[in-house]
Recover the amino acids of this structure.
């Protein structure tokens, strides 16, 4: 149908979703959009994204404190440091759209750090996924699932974003998430 | 007229899952669309991250929501 309606390039995924062996997301189109819709401006989006990166880094550090498994502790610490790098990237996006130089510690006081990437509550998420947190492979599976949900959330919001510059910011953050997912996949292959 | 008829009769190119994943990794977000034409309940259960949901029965009425100039991967 699309080919005959002026679309320049259309690809049909053979076998549909059943054949797809990449990561998937779940939930309805509207899931957690409210997290970003509170302030859908580029500034608001970067604050929301920064808060979610911070929350996930805190989550990994918290889990790292609860384990005596040295390998697991190292991995969780590494995952937390990756989230710190994401925060650096998101802050750089923030400074691009902010009107003047911004003090980072002042900025951090304005972000909400209670929601994990993808839109989950940290405490509930930890309780619900305890079984995954017992091994490096399980932790990485969980991390990849969270990043896939985050990528999905950013792109779903980009689809409905109307404020000037909002889509561009969300696409940049999404590209960063895709790179992160690839790195996690490579790490997962080692376990 | 002939070109339009030819385009209408030309089937979309098929790609496998590996090619679709490569496509996603090599194209920046915002430069293409992944379109899910299944029912909402199927989308809720599992979908490719960032897919746009337009169920097949509604597709002809909602084509203006898609950018004609961007490649579309459909499933």
């Amino acid at each position: 149908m699309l080919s005959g309606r002026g679309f320049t390039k259309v690809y049909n995924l053979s076998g549909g979703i059943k054949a797809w062996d990449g990561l998937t997301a779940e939930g309805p189109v509207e899931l957690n959009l409210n997290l970003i819709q509170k302030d859908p401006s580029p500034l608001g989006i970067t604050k929301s994204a920064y808060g979610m990166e911070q929350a996930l880094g805190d989550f990994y550090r918290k889990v790292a404190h609860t384990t005596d498994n040295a390998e697991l502790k190292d991995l969780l610490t590494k995952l937390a440091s990756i989230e710190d790098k994401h925060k650096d990237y998101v802050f750089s996006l923030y400074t691009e759209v902010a009107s003047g130089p911004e003090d980072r510690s002042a900025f951090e006081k304005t972000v909400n750090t209670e929601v994990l990437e993808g839109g989950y509550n940290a405490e509930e998420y930890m309780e619900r996924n305890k079984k995954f947190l017992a091994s490096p492979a399980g932790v990485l599976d969980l991390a990849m699932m969270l990043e896939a949900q985050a990528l999905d959330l950013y792109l779903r919001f980009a689809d409905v974003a109307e404020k000037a510059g909002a889509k561009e910011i969300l696409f940049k953050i999404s590209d960063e998430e895709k790179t992160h997912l690839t790195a996690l996949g490579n790490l997962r292959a080692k376990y | 007229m002939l070109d339009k008829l030819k385009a209408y009769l030309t089937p979309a190119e098929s790609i496998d899952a590996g090619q679709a994943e490569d496509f996603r990794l090599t194209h920046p977000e915002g430069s293409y669309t992944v379109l899910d034409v299944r029912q909402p309940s199927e989308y809720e259960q599992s979908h490719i991250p960032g897919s746009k949901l337009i169920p097949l029965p509604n597709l002809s009425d909602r084509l203006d929501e898609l950018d004609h100039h961007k490649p579309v991967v459909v499933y």
